[in-house]
């Protein structure tokens, strides 16, 4: 059974975007064109691939099974076509990166503008996601994560700062009302602002001093999901709502201005910086190869 490649791409675009309108924005094809393509594909296969309502588009069991196999296959087709890029004067195409909010905020701003200037024929697409993903299945060329979350078969290239720290901080107004913790365990008696990952995990706060590691699991009035809503926790900390535990550079401006005061700084734990990762079992597309060379040069 043969299916048109454009129809298959349309199905993937709609499913990943969660709707025809959203898929149209991502793919550059009209929503009606995507709808016609998916309808043709369903008619040819003889099964419904998407359940459509006025508010959502959700893949059926058949649609999910097809997407799981189709995504990596289409990525391989794209990689095969990318071979001709070596005959161009400058690499061209789309580079899709899957990154957490911390990388989008703390790593990429120092890299992306210069990269786009150096490679004007490359289009960069950034997908924000906190959990570790199979980048090929997610329709991406590479991702950025920390080493403890990388699979063994991934190629990992250092990107961004090589040493980072988690900082604990609170507004001076909070400390004047509730006092300053002298030890990590004192945090159990304070209002703490927490971050929960999409998986539901809410990691304990980890501290280290002179080889002693302490984990604490404090409570408080606010829990935000990792990602864009972390800034809400920062704003709450600045107003005196509680103590925050976050990347030091995320709150660098607030620390420098005095809006937030550092707490337990001798206990702040250092850890290695993030990595760009991608599967080692496939041909590296020219846009990704250019990006890897660029960050290695930096």
What does this structure look like?
The protein has helices spanning 5-17, 20-27, 31-45, 61-81, 101-106, 112-118, 172-178, 230-238, 252-257, 286-297, and strands spanning 50-52, 57-59, 93-99, 122-128, 142-145, 154-158, 163-170, 192-196, 205-209, 212-216, 222-225, 243-247, 261-263, 270-272, 275-279. With 298 residues, the protein is α/β, with parallel strands linked by helices. The chain folds into three domains: 5-70, Orthogonal Bundle (Arc Repressor Mutant, subunit A); 88-159 and 274-297, 3-Layer(aba) Sandwich (D-Maltodextrin-Binding Protein, domain 2); 163-271, D-Maltodextrin-Binding Protein, domain 2 (3-Layer(aba) Sandwich). Strands 7, 8, 11, 12, 13 and 14 form a six-stranded mixed sheet that branches. Strand 9 and strand 10 (212-216) form a beta hairpin.
CATH class assignment of the largest domain = Alpha Beta
Low-confidence stretches: none
Q: Ends: how far apart?
A: 48 Å
Helix content: 25-40%
Q: Give the biggest beta sheet.
A: 6 strands, mixed
Features:
single chain; 298 residues; alpha/beta; D-Maltodextrin-Binding Protein, domain 2; 5-stranded mixed β-sheet; 10 helices; 15 strands; globular
Fold topology:
Elements: H1 5-17, H2 20-27, H3 31-45, E1 50-52, E2 57-59, H4 61-81, E3 93-99, H5 101-106, H6 112-118, E4 122-128, E5 142-145, E6 154-158, E7 163-170, H7 172-178, E8 192-196, E9 205-209, E10 212-216, E11 222-225, H8 230-238, E12 243-247, H9 252-257, E13 261-263, E14 270-272, E15 275-279, H10 286-297
Parallel strand pairs: 3-4, 3-5, 8-11, 8-12
Antiparallel strand pairs: 1-2, 5-15, 6-15, 7-12, 7-13, 7-14, 9-10
């Amino acid at each position: 059974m043969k299916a048109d490649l454009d129809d298959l791409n349309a199905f993937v675009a709609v499913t990943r975007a969660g709707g025809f309108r959203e898929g149209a924005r991502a793919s550059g094809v009209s929503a009606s064109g995507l709808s016609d393509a998916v309808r043709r594909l369903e008619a040819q296969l003889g099964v419904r691939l998407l359940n459509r309502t006025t508010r959502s588009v959700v893949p059926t069991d058949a649609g999910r099974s097809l997407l799981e196999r189709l995504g990596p296959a289409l990525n391989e087709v794209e990689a095969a076509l990318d071979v001709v890029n070596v005959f161009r004067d400058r690499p061209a195409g789309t580079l899709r990166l899957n990154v957490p909010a911390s990388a989008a905020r703390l790593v990429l701003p120092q890299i992306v503008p210069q990269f786009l200037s150096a490679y004007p024929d490359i289009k960069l697409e950034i997908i924000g996601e906190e959990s570790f993903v199979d980048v090929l299945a997610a329709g991406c060329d590479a991702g950025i994560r920390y080493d403890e979350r990388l699979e063994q078969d991934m190629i990992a290239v250092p990107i961004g700062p090589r040493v980072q720290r988690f900082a604990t901080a609170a507004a001076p107004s909070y400390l004047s009302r509730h006092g300053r913790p002298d030890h990590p365990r004192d945090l159990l008696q304070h209002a703490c602002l927490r971050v929960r990952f999409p998986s539901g995990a809410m990691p304990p706060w980890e501290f280290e001093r002179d080889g002693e590691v302490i984990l604490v699991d404090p409570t408080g009035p606010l829990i935000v999901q990792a990602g864009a809503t972390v800034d809400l926790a920062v704003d709450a900390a600045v107003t005196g709502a509680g103590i925050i535990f976050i990347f030091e550079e995320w709150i660098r401006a607030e620390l420098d201005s005095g809006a937030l005061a550092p707490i337990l700084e001798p206990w702040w734990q250092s850890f290695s910086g993030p990595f760009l990762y991608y599967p080692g079992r496939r041909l590296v597309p020219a846009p990704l190869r250019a990006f890897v060379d660029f960050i290695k040069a930096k």
